[in-house]
Specification:
The protein has 320 residues and is of the alpha/beta class. It contains 10 helices and 10 strands.
Length: 320
Amino acid sequence: MEPKYIRTIFKFLLYFILLLINNVYEFFVRIFCGHIPTGKVRLRKVLLRYKFDLEELSRTEDFLLSPGIFVEPASLDHPNWHIYCIDENLVTFVYLKSSIDKYSIVHYPFMFVPVHTDAIQVAQLSHDDFIKLANTFEQKSQPKTVLFTNTARCGSTLMAKMLHRPGKSICYGEPHCLTNLAIMDNAESLSPERMKSVHTPKNEICVLKTTSGEARLVKYCDDVPNLKHMFMFRKSGLLSVERMLRREETICFYFLHLFNLNHHLTRFVGNVVCMEREQMLKCRPKTIKVISSCKRFDNGGLGACGFNIRFTVGILSEKR
């Protein structure tokens, strides 16, 4: 067996062990420390950061955390707090080394990488408390916001950098909290209630450049004040998507076999096939080329940020 495959297998095994340890640890935290009370936030220190791949979608299992303490939600009103991820039960914030405007697309084309590596503390709260928190900022200036969706490998990152104009507009590259919402919408576990925006100066435009999957969220745009939608695509982009996946061919190879063995196992490891799951369940891909086709054409049908003191999402509260 080639060394690259041996390294990938070892990486998989180590990651599985860390996930199991973390899940058992969180189980005992809930038993001894209790669930998060209504109207409170669980504030925790980051003891260990780990991901199978830095480009994997953000989720709560990316950190090993201290048991933590309970604080008031108002403590999250600080420019260094940013929404890390959203799942079906909790909204997770991270406290970063710098204010969120330092993580614009000019400095970081994919902001989810430094948001993971720079996390110092984590705060967790329920969807209901998150919506209440967002409502407390209603009186503050509302930004003009652009939701920039796109198909995979269409040059959208370059376009987003061109849209970033200091003093006039600020652009963030692929905040994973929006991707989490798209996953929940795809799984039909999301019911939109509201979206609120805060803290962006009225004379500055906030551009949120997304991954290809967030086109699913376009149907919610009418409910968001001062929000415009922009979509970008590229014809004949299949080969480019395939080349992108082949950069990590060994990882894709094992994820592919794991998915065909039991697609629930891939969800345990991560969300690498979150958007393409429905298509992959139908065609059961055997090659990376077929995965590329699933990724290329699953963008919410093509019809159609974190709480970073630039943009707050509050669309969660109910499940269908």
